[in-house]
Amino acid sequence: MDTEEFRRHAHAFVDWMTDYLAEVERYPVRAQVKPGDVAARLPQTPPERGEPMEKIFADFTSVVLPGITHWQHPSFFAYFPANSSPPSVLAEMLTATLGAQCMLWQTSPAATELETRVLDWLRQMAGLPDGFTGVIQDSASSAILCALLTARERATGWRANDEGVNAVGPLKVYCSTETHSATEKGAKIAGLGMRNVRKIAVDDRFAMRPDALEAAIREDLAAGATPICVVASLGTTGVGAMDPLRPIGEACRRHGVWLHVDAAWAGSALILSEHRGLLDGIEHVDSFVFNPHKWLFTNFDCSAHYVRDPDALVRTLEILPAFLKTRERGHVTDYRDWSVQLGRRFRALKLWFVIRSYGVAELRRMVAAHIALAREAAEWIAAAPDFELMAPRSLALVNFRYHPAGLDDGAMLDRLNERLLEALNDSGELYLTQNRVHGAYAIRLAIGQTTTRRRHVEAAWEKIQTTARALPA
Amino acid sequence: MDTEEFRRHAHAFVDWMTDYLAEVERYPVRAQVKPGDVAARLPQTPPERGEPMEKIFADFTSVVLPGITHWQHPSFFAYFPANSSPPSVLAEMLTATLGAQCMLWQTSPAATELETRVLDWLRQMAGLPDGFTGVIQDSASSAILCALLTARERATGWRANDEGVNAVGPLKVYCSTETHSATEKGAKIAGLGMRNVRKIAVDDRFAMRPDALEAAIREDLAAGATPICVVASLGTTGVGAMDPLRPIGEACRRHGVWLHVDAAWAGSALILSEHRGLLDGIEHVDSFVFNPHKWLFTNFDCSAHYVRDPDALVRTLEILPAFLKTRERGHVTDYRDWSVQLGRRFRALKLWFVIRSYGVAELRRMVAAHIALAREAAEWIAAAPDFELMAPRSLALVNFRYHPAGLDDGAMLDRLNERLLEALNDSGELYLTQNRVHGAYAIRLAIGQTTTRRRHVEAAWEKIQTTARALPA
Prior knowledge:
The structure is a homodimer. By secondary structure, chain A is α/β, with parallel strands linked by helices. Chain A folds into three domains: 3-68, dopa decarboxylase, N-terminal domain (Up-down Bundle), CATH 1.20.1340; 94-358, Aspartate Aminotransferase, domain 2, CATH 3.40.640.10; 360-470, Alpha-Beta Complex (Aspartate Aminotransferase, domain 1), CATH 3.90.1150.170. Helix content of chain A is 42%, strand content 12%. Chain A is built from 15 helices and eleven strands. Chain A has helices at 3-23, 53-64, 86-98, 109-126, 140-156, 159-163, 182-189, 210-222, 245-255, 292-295, 310-317, 348-358, 360-383, 410-427, 454-470, and strands spanning 133-137, 171-176, 197-200, 226-233, 258-262, 287-290, 303-307, 387-389, 397-402, 433-437, 440-446. The first copy, chain A, has a seven-stranded mixed sheet, with helices on both faces. In chain A, strands 8-9-11-10 form a four-stranded antiparallel sheet. In chain A, strand 10 (433-437) and strand 11 form a beta hairpin. In chain A, helix 5 (140-156) crosses helix 7, helix 13 (360-383) packs parallel to helix 15 and helix 14 (410-427) packs across helix 15. The interface between A and B is large, with 160 and 160 residues.
């Protein structure tokens, strides 16, 4: 394909892209295909000769598109959103065209310096104090892994890196029973072991209990183990619980334990000053992550990872073969040493486009609107005689279940709500996901898609009620 | 920005993108800015009010672009290429628009099923045998980490995952002295320890010596350590060395050691049947990775990771909280359990576009053309009285240095070539990187950019000679 052919196809694609964004509501939210449906329409072998782009694109629309779950649909209430926006897509077009690999300052100075600056903008927007330095990771999971690794090395004087975890004895990690599984996954990867992750009890708002944390740390110390890291959450995935940073941070400081804060989803709400109280105790935090790719209108992947001591992170991950030495080394930031991967896409551009195109005031308004919608939805649910909230609403996240009068068998309620969720998602009109709250099946409603308006939430609530009440017993 | 504004801007961007691809030769290859130049032009604080896209785009061209190293420039001979192509960019436009997060089958069935199928196409193209199952990782570094983790767990009966590496004693990893630093980085991350990575001696073609490997494994066994993994390379980063898979694989089989093959760059050359001999012994290989984002015209990131036993990989990385359970689980592939990260972009689409748009025959021709150009360049260098090859050419990679008659002091030659490299890169006309071969400074010429033609290599060689000969002593 020569460049003029590219121009022609790209213009055609832009028209399709625009129409898609304008009309995404016409698609079922969750793909309605069965396992194997898409595969059955794909040839077993690659084509020997090139095919016209028109044919490839036709297959994209006829074969791929029906198998896509539309994350940008305004009735996407599942998981957490991965909300995008037109300025972000525009930036991705440029990023793909430049095709720069941004592992070193020299391999794209502007990408590095823009990343540093735009993450400092974001730090200011979220109310994180001076002294935090940012880097874009692919995901909060990777940031948690980096935190566990840096904590491991700081606690062992970099001996684990050198001699292996086998040389240093059991190292303990703490998180609440509500914390995202990424902490356990990170502990497995880092060679710490799942059983060295202690799940700390939570209070009635699902927040980590600092007294239980303190007791666990003391118990481990008494047993000769080394506490290395606490992963606290602002906004757990299940119910959006907020761990109290101040007492947790004080416990960490007392015992020399690394404090990482996973605010993957909820961090974006910190741009609203009314939620800044969540940061009380931030001075005790060693690292902090939140994902603009969840709730700040920036394409996946773009996870903002802040550290107080970049040298510790770099020392933990650094490897320097001859072919990566550049004359600027030591005078510039080489982000390759800040993450698990060596290669890096130019991800700062889309965040820059989004912040500039909307401006901070408008971003605040958009996030606040999602929270206001969730507040209304939670009120509707609480007021309905046959529905109940399963946890306090947290920002834009609501956990609920259908609970018709007279049905009090837990297993039956679980099964009923499971059937409700399947019926809703099978309708294609909205997409929700499930959770367990105190062991009981709950339905999660996460509001945060860029184009979600009141009418989408109203329609969802209407559909939820009518579907539930029509379910055969 | 509403969708019609998006349409207008996106069309304008397409014209810029097309012109950029057509005229990229007009830019200096390596950015010519100094550290801090770009940052100095970026405001310290984010804008409160939104700015027009015209202004943002104007800053992109005036502030960002001068700080970009142009990886898609045909005179980019540095590192390894990250070669892209028009069909790949087209696919990235669609991927960004869909904004799908492909962690589970249900969150985008088509993305999952297309990934499985297109990686099987690629497996066939590269001549990998049946029985290898593919997954797209972000980079070969991540694939190496996955291999080390799976090897660690297989060797310890999944005890390291559960109890930590502290419970299982020293675990040994083997690679050659030429292997990419990603192996050491992976060993640090996995809690194995750098000093448990044994660097095996190489032969006169820089390939791992199987006899030295066998001796090292026996020595470690005798000392009570557990050998878990050998990382062999097809095409090392420095000189492109090819480790012999058959005798290495036989040693691995004898001792129950995992064999991972890192063919990050050279793997793409396997689509040419004349290089299939490199796969001799592939039946002993447990996992294999190569990067279509390096040399198969597909945007970074797209690393093709093949495993013989997906269950072992999944068992190693799996975590299953309630909110990620779907009714299809067990009947479909959920790629989230195949990689370090949970979230995943829809990366299969661009590979599908590239393979279909070019067809396998044309992809073969394009890769073969790069190799032919490198063969010529190596001949020119070898024939020049004041230049010398520092290692045998490997596929499209040439290591050389300037060595004028009468100058035989090693340190002076190193310094002379370092100055030569800096002068070349400062010219903006081409971009090369450095290496060390037997301790001596060498200049690497890697040919593989999509639009590189004979005239670019000729111009590079001319520039190299005139610059070298004009250097003050």
